[in-house]
Each structure stands twice: as structure tokens, then as C-alpha cells.
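Give me the fold.
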Amino acid sequence: MSSDTESKYSIVDLFAGAGGLSYGFLQTGKFYIKAAFENNLNAQKTYKRNHGSAEIYNDVSDALSDEIRAKLGQVDVVIGGPPCQGFSNANRQKNHAISQNNSLVKKFVQTVLHLNPMAFVMENVSMLQSDIHRFYVDETDEETIKKYGIKTSPSEIPLLDAEFLFPGIADIAKNMGRISNYLWNENDYLALNVVFKTRNNSKKLCASLTKHKKRLLALAKNLIASLDENDPVLRHNHAAGAAIRSYYNVAETQEAAEELCKAIMPAIMLQRMFSKAKEILDNCIVVDNYSIDNGLVAHVTSMAVIDYVKSILEASSTGYSINSGVLSSADFGAPQKRMRFVLIGVKKSICDDVKLPIGTFSEANYRTVKDAIKDLEEIEAATEVSDGDQGVQLPDAPKDISELGELLRDSKNLCNHVSTATTPKALERFKAIKQGDNFHSLPPELKTTYSDTGRTQKTIYLRLKYDEPSGTVVNVRKSMWIHPVKHRALSIREAARLQTFPDSFVFCGTKDSQYQQVGNAVPPMLAKALAEHIYNYLARV
């Protein structure tokens, strides 16, 4: 061990992203990174640029190998933010029954067991503490549930509404061979589904039908040719194919497009059902039975993600004292009200009653958007990512710079000050939106982007308020967040400032990737507070 690391505690970072969590630990001067696991190549580049010589692995599964464990040696702390969407009734509207990210939370738990650190920190969305985030029990879970006494509940996966049922549908849902025969080519399904999803906006519906004409006519030919009068699925497919062909051959009118949507609905719903049924089989989900009393439903068993994590890591055989809760980044000095679920574990041999850190800021003295980015106000944002990578020389800081601004302005060269080029239509919208307002405050003639404007999220086209903390920073390019006083989108660097990344921390990759990396990150200021808190426990040994 080098002299630089011999007095510090070692860290392994799982699902590291750009490395906000790691960076906060490094900022304490009391930890060093042994290894990080991250599969996004752009995030890897960012991590390497800002975290010294840490070894980066592509696949988090590698952390579970004996070879890597031997190579790493003693690991003091495992940290990470495994993505977790869980599931809820919202999945009834989606094509997916199971979040592929659920398995990543399991991998985090398995890695803690495998590397046996003195402490760990798991960070996630604030909803993780609720019952909504659950795992469907699969065949590999049954032994674990029994061993750790994990609480489970009956659950349902709705597969198909009652109006689309026919005799024998449940038998198809259980049979991978039959499902595979019925599933369309994915691009064919996506093209028709894009059309179907625009059915409530006639202008977009007709434009979508025009755009996908070639592929849809080819699909129609196949669907018509596959007719078997004795097969309900193929009958619906044939009806969808005939409706597509009729639309293009007879009349491409708004009325015809609406009729087309009615005709393709059964085929679309069946494709969604096959896709979900395939996921259940692919993921070895344990199905108690399928019922058809109220549509086709798979009856399964589920467990809350939080119960799974705590039951395993708090077990006497594992030996961790655990505490968890939702922390607000604003309480720890970040200029944003980002609520994150944090779970901390420390070996019971070190401490039998773990607490969560307590922030030193309150609503009366929260840092604001102005504190974070006001000193950059007159520095023009580039629109090309290459210019942002090169950076611009910063003038001397203004005399009225905030304490936070001074802290984050730690480089003479400002990189990543890049925003999305402003179109004439966007500029019209920007000018019409006041601080704190969003897309919904626009006059009707400027609300032309979204197919269902009433359901547009309140974070879309949000102009930030200078004198308050921001809301949760996500991919602000996708949300089109607007600078408080400039008629342009928020830059990558400004979003990074709201996340408390200092200017010396440089993001790499495409423009969208940089925005996404910033939005996915843990604010280093919150991470630093967690690191200091963990250090206080480890220093007892």
C-alpha cells in the first residue's frame, strides 16, 4: 500500500456513474478508491478523469468473482446507488412487466456479502422506502426468503384486459414456444405502437402514419398473409393488417386514421401481453396461477425491496447494524431539494446503533440557485460539446460571489458550460415563462410540442427561481430547464453546480450523456457528509 493510501480507508463503488458519491468520499481526504464498477462508457471516462488511478470494471457482476475479491483484498467500505424502478400499477400501461434494474439491487446486496466490508452506503430514490418498490419473487429467491425470513405478499401482474380475452389465452401465456411464434419483429411492433400512442392527437397520428408508411405496409402484407380463421390471434393480426392497407390504399384522412387505431387495438394489446408473459418466463418469476375473471392476470408473490435488503444485511449471520431514511441534499448545503433514500450499514462489532447524519442547513438558510450559478451569468454558454470540453478562461470572480460560488469556482478554466441551441420556437417559449413557471403557464398557441399537453410534467420548460433551491436535478436537457434570467436552457456546468460538483470536475462524452451523468449523480456535498459520518464509526476501531 502506498504512503498516500496507508492511513486511509478503502472504497469499492458499485454503479458508480460519473462518481458523485465517490468524489464526496475523496473530498474528506480520509478515503481512497480501490475499484469502481460502471458499464456506461462515457461515465467511465468521466470517472477516470476525476478519480485518480482507481481501477474501473465494466460489469458489476465481476465484483462477485473470487478472483476480483482476491485482487481487491480487504475492502473497508462498499458504496453505490443501484438503479431501482421497482414496480407499481403503472406497469399496466407499459409494455414491460418487470424492471430489469431490480436485479441490480440484489447485486449490491450480494457484493456486500461477498466483500464483507466494515461498512456500506446504499443511495437510491426516496420512494425506495415505500411498499411500492417491490421484487416479484423468482425461482432463485425462494431459498433466500426462507433463510432470512423475508416478508412476502400476494401480487398480480395484469396481462390483458377482459375485452380482448378468448378461450385458451392463459395456456398461451404459459408457453414460451407459442409466445415466441406470435411475437412480431420488435421494429414492426414499435412502428405500429408509435402510431397507436398518438391516437389522441390527430395531427401527430397522421404524421406518424406517413413517417412509418413503408414499414407498416410491409407489416400489413405479413399480417394479412398469416390468416388462420381458427386462430383468434391471427384473426386479430389479419384485421390489423387489412386496416393498415385500407388506410394507405383508400383514404389517408383523419377519420380513416381514427378507425385504423380502433382496428389495430386488439393486435397491439395482444403483443403487449405476449411481451409481458415472455418477461415472466424469461425471469423465472414464480406464478401461482393465471386467472381470467377480470382480464388475464398472473398471480405471483412479491417482496418490498427495502425488506429484502434489510432482512439480509441485518441478519445475525451478516452482522450489520443498519439505519435508513430520506435525506434532503438542501440540508447538507446543496442548492437543491433533492430527496434521496440512504441506507447505512456498519458492522455490529463496531457499533450496534447506527444513526443517519444530520444536516446543518435549514429552510431559513438554504443555499439557492443564485448562490450556485450567479457568477456564471455573463459567461456565454457554448452549444457545441467540443467547445465545452475545451473550456473558457474565467475572469476574476465578481466581488459579490456567494460562499458556495467561491467554493465551486475552483478552476480558472470553465469546462462543460454548454447548453442546447435555442430554436426560434423555444425562444418564444422562454420569453413567455417567468421564474418558477413552466410549460403549463404558456398560452395555447405555444403548447404545440406534446401530444397531451394536460399531462405534461410540471418540470418541463421550468424556469428556475434564483432565490430558492432548485428541485431535483435530472437530465435538465430533456426537461428543458431554463436559466433564471437568460433566455436559454441551463448549461451542463450550471446543472453540475446545482449538484455541487466543483468546476475542476470535468464531464466527458456526448452532450446528452453529460447532462444525464449530472442528473444521475449523488451531490458530492451530500456524499461528503455521508463519508464523514461513516469515518466517525470506522475511526472507533
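The radius of gyration is 26 Å.
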